[in-house]
Amino acid sequence: xxxxxxxxxxxxxxxxxxxxxxxxxxxxxxxxxxxxxxxxxxxxxxxxxxxxxxxxxxxxxxxxxxxxxxxxxxxxxxxxxxxxxxxxxxxxxxxxxxxxxxxxxxxxxxxxxxxxxxxxxxxxxxxxxxxxxxxxxxxxxxxxxxxxxxxxxxxxxxxxxxxxxxxxxxxxxxxxxx
Length: 178
Prior knowledge:
- This protein has helices spanning 4-26, 35-38, 48-57, 61-66, 72-102, 109-148, and strands spanning 158-164, 169-175.
- By secondary structure, it is mainly α.
- It has a two-stranded antiparallel sheet with strand order 1-2.
- A hairpin with a 4-residue loop joins strand 1 and strand 2.
- Helix 1 (4-26) runs antiparallel to helix 3 and helix 3 runs antiparallel to helix 6.
- The model has no long low-confidence stretch (mean pLDDT 81).
């Protein structure tokens, strides 16, 4: 069987190490900053490294940190589903591996069927692990980009329109200066 207590302990260690590191990166010493940098306190930003650490700890946490609330459950559900598939396929793999190892004659049809089932579940377990790695990387990259673009404003100061009639194609570019 799977030792769940070790898995939970590893997850908690990763969680707390990611949280403590991200908070220590965000805090700055006010004695070492110049006077002109302290006056810019109303500029809101998110730490890209903090977003990455959060996403690598729990997929979706970095999206919550950067304000992309609708993406967080997608990443978390994807990672949870793939973790379930890894555990399920691993238990089936172990079952058929034990069954195959107990067979005395490994040249029978039953032995080949058992071997094929064992390889099937092993391949699915490994494929689910690669997909889980992809979810983690995608969540980290998304959180990193969202943290960099946290203060990016999209307003009507710049607009770009295409319009057409029967014989002409119009391109409108508007820039408002305030």
